[in-house]
Specification:
Layout lengths: L82 H18 L4 H42 L2 E3 L7 H4 L16 E3 H6 L5 H29 L8 H8 L10 H16 L7 H16 L3 H4 L2 H20 L2 H12 L5 H21 L23 H31 L6 H16 L3 H4 L2 H9 L32 H24 L9 H25 L19 H17 L3 H11 L5 H18 L4 H9 L16 H4 L12 E2 L3 E2 H10 L4 E5 L7 E6 H14 L8 E3 L15 E2 L4 E2 L4 E3 L4 H11 L3 E6 L2 E7 H11 L11
Parallel strand pairs: 3-5, 7-8, 10-11
Antiparallel strand pairs: 1-2, 4-7, 5-6, 6-9, 11-12
Length: about 800
């Protein structure tokens, strides 16, 4: 569950606030692509400043410039936001609007519109995300069918829509005259070996064309559009800034290439990338509202709601989407965000329902309804499916991470287009001969979830019929016919192919989701087990395990239910979702009575996978990429102290500091040029090392540049001071530069004897970027978020330099 930000914790943290102004808490973080280990002391910094002056009773948390400079208080790329400062800024803004609302009618209207803007933004996000999801669904469905043939009535119709107006009988509905396969178009007939080879060839050519177009668009226009996007969104929601990741180009290219990648027949899904698409919508629409455009913390609340809307349209599961955002991706999820996520998910689902992309009034292709109850003894096979899901999840994560690491560390990573070409070629060549791998994965899951009825013509429903025992729509358990046995071995081959090909597909430079391939693996395994159980009950209904609840001629076992439980188990094994997974699955099926089997499978799957490896696939990819993500779910159980982790260490150079009133502009510029830290502690003097506060590198650079241009008399020998009053100097000295306004007056501090367990908890719950370490009031060192991550990695016997984001 995401860690809240209990601002009340501020009271328990030792703060430099006596006899001074209260400052905000700028916890700005460092761009870390080039930081060496020796430089980590000040990296990812952002502290507030402390000064011996009289306490100011103003409600403002910072001594702002009379005219705030553009750029001061903003963040550079690959930095982490200062949660506490952003929240305090928003509170100040809100207080100001509230106080003004009593002065005039116009101010009151402004106050009301400000309060309503969040809901209006959610409405826009829901509408845009739902519309894009509908567009993606319709386009992908059409282009998937394009690999096999074309509609003569209109090339823009997919196979199903093409045959709607056909007069063919129900059994021949797939052979309508309006739809022509490529062999029928080219050589005039669809039978025979040559026609098969021609169709095979066209299938492979279209698949290669789609995937190559996708990878070239990603490589050329939006490199961030590849992959699932969920690991990066988790990192961004924890406060990290990756500029362009949620931009307009990423949105456009991801929408187009997602359709191409899904249509190519690769073993990937569109569900994960739809979360990325929805978050791009949220980020772009935030620019319409000043409240969200100028505040990074508020924007992350919007992105949490957008992630919920993404899952809502991906699965047609609004409540599951909200729970997914809460359980899986969000770092900070206040109650207000919960309500807004619910509203955004509702609007998105309603929009998609209005578009009706599949023509069946359902939001997903594999919606299904089961009517038969399940029996208590069936929990045993359900738990077996949970064990299979956990084993598959752990196997997939280890194999995929090993392959992705190989891609990053060898020459393989330099040839993304070739990799996509080879994987697509292998997938298409292996997929075409088997009808269960040739069809799109969503259609396959739909087929596997399906409960066989009288009119079903699928091979999976070719049972030996005894119509004398049929009662209404419920068909009794029947003996499997030759079609079912053929389908069984074809599904077994499909299972083997999906298990291995997905390992190499996820992580390529095309948009690739993991939900659908994982569900397909589980659904195939579940259907195989379900048919086996059904035949066992049919031929051995007098066994002890079946007697009493499964008499001859009764409909006891629903193989489609086993497929659904298997799908949930495998998805849970890979992602380690539990609550949101069960809700998504029952929203998919409309069956409340199947919650217990789904819960049993999801929990068994999670326990099994956790026993082998603690990380889900998204956390594993976050660690692989070195993102600065401090996992809120893991306990820190080691007995180390703040002094063991802080910088500088014994043999390191001393901490780089700025004095409060004795350094010149030239001295400060030298420090900035010689170091790459993102901020510097300010002390009374080098001798006393009494802490005054903290100033950010970016703010220093902007303020000094601005002063040189606009303030008379500022030269290299001008003194910079951070106090309320200028220090006494001879009249011959050049003008002095007062920079108290950019100083953070209340940095978070801990003593050198504070247990790291408490320090890690403070970092997690307040979203800190760093913390100063003192001893008897004197500055000793600094602990940054990166230091905490490196320390945790060292204690887990991992490479501490793996934290360096590349």
């Amino acid at each position: 569950m995401p860690a809240p930000h209990p601002w009340s914790v501020l009271l328990t943290v030792k703060r430099w606030s006596c006899d001074q102004n209260f400052g905000s808490f700028p916890i700005q973080h460092h761009g870390h692509e080039q930081i060496r280990q020796s430089q980590v002391i000040g990296s990812w910094l952002g502290f507030s400043s402390y000064n011996g002056g009289e306490m100011n009773g103003t409600s403002k948390m910072m001594d702002f410039l009379e005219e705030p400079l553009p750029g001061v208080g903003t963040y550079e790329d690959f930095n982490t936001i200062d949660w506490v400062r952003e929240k305090s800024r928003d509170r100040d803004r809100h207080r100001e609007i509230t106080s003004r609302s009593k002065e005039s009618t116009w101010a009151l209207i402004h106050s009301v519109s400000d309060a309503f803007s969040g809901w209006l933004l959610m409405l826009f996000i829901g509408l845009l995300a739902g519309s894009l999801a509908g567009l993606i669904d319709i386009s992908a469905h059409w282009m998937t069918d394009l690999k096999e043939g074309v509609c003569l009535a209109g090339f823009w119709f997919n196979h199903e829509h093409c045959c709607w107006k056909s007069n063919t009988t129900f059994t021949d509905r797939d052979k309508c005259p309006e739809w022509k396969s490529w062999s029928q178009l080219i050589i005039g007939h669809g039978e025979g070996a040559f026609a098969y080879i021609l169709n095979y060839l066209m299938y492979v050519i279209w698949a290669l064309l789609f995937s190559l177009l996708a990878v070239l668009l990603v490589k050329g226009f939006a490199p961030y559009a590849c992959g699932s996007g969920i690991p990066e969104i988790k990192t961004i929601l924890s406060g990290f800034i990756i500029r362009g990741y949620l931009g307009k180009w990423t949105l456009i290219i991801k929408t187009i290439t997602l359709v191409l990648a899904v249509s190519s027949g690769l073993s990937l899904g569109k569900e994960g990338p739809l979360v990325h698409v929805a978050c791009c919508c949220g980020n772009i629409l935030c620019h319409l509202f000043t409240k969200y455009r100028k505040n990074e913390a508020k924007r992350r609340e919007v992105l949490s709601a957008a992630a919920a809307a993404g899952v809502s349209v991906a699965f047609g599961a609004p409540i599951g989407g909200v729970l997914f955002s809460l359980e899986e991706v969000s770092y900070y999820f206040p109650l207000k965000t919960l309500w807004r996520s619910f509203f955004a998910a509702l609007v998105a689902a309603f929009t998609l329902r209005s578009i009706n992309p599949f023509g069946n009034s359902r939001l997903v292709l594999f919606y299904v309804e089961f009517h038969m109850p399940w029996h208590l003894l069936e929990l045993v096979p359900f738990i077996l499916l949970g064990i299979f899901g956990g084993l598959w999840g752990a196997f997939f994560i280890r194999s995929n991470i090993a392959w992705c690491r190989r891609r990053k560390t060898t020459k393989l990573g330099k040839y993304p287009v070739l990799e996509v070409f080879v994987v697509t070629a292998i997938t298409a060549i292996l997929a075409f001969p088997n009808e269960y791998t040739r069809m799109s994965t969503s259609e396959l899951i739909s087929e596997l979830f399906n409960d066989c009825g009288i009119l079903d013509s699928s091979k999976l429903c070719e049972y030996v019929n005894d119509f004398n025992s049929t009662k209404g729509d419920d068909l009794p358990d029947r003996a499997a016919g030759p079609g079912v046995y053929t389908a069984m071995w074809q599904l077994a081959l499909a299972l083997i192919m999906k298990v291995f090909i997905t390992i190499f597909t996820f992580g390529m430079k095309v948009p690739s989701g993991l939900f659908i391939p994982s569900m397909a693996v589980g659904a195939i395994a579940g259907r195989l087990l379900g048919v086996a159980m059904e035949q066992l009950a049919f031929y051995h209904h007098d066994w002890v395990i079946f007697s009493g609840w499964c008499s001859q001629g009764a409909d006891c076992i629903t193989p489609g239910l086993y497929a659904m439980v298997g799908a949930a188990a495998c998805l849970g094994g890979v992602t380690r979702m539990t609550v949101s997974l069960v809700v998504i699955m029952f929203e998919l099926t409309g069956g409340l009575e199947y919650i217990v089997p789904l819960m049993a499978a999801a929990m068994t799957s999670k326990w099994m996978a956790d026993a082998i490896g603690r990380e889900g696939i998204y956390d594993a990819h976050i660690r692989l990429n070195g993102y600065p993500f401090l996992e809120a779910k893991e306990e820190f159980s080691h007995k180390t102290l703040a002094m063991d982790v802080m910088r500088p260490r014994r043999n390191d150079p001393p901490l780089t500091v700025i004095t409060q009133d004795s350094m010149t502009v030239e001295d400060v510029e030298t420090i900035i040029n010689e170091t790459t830290y993102s901020g510097y502690p300010v002390v009374v003097s080098r001798e006393s090392q009494r802490l005054v506060g903290f100033v950010l590198r970016r703010d220093l650079i902007i303020s000094i540049e601005n002063a040189r241009k606009k303030q008379d008399g500022i030269v290299s020998t001008s003194i910079i001071y951070f106090t309320d009053h200028s220090p006494p100097l001879p009249p011959s000295f050049p003008s002095m530069l007062k920079l108290r306004s950019i100083l953070d007056l209340s940095p978070f501090t801990v003593t050198d004897q504070t247990p790291m367990e408490i320090v890690v908890d403070i970092f997690r719950k307040l979203g800190l970027r760093q913390c100063l370490v003192t001893h008897n009031g004197k500055l000793l060192g600094i602990i940054t978020k990166k230091d905490v991550l490196k320390h945790i990695a060292q204690l887990a016997n991992q490479d501490p330099d793996s934290i360096l984001f590349n």
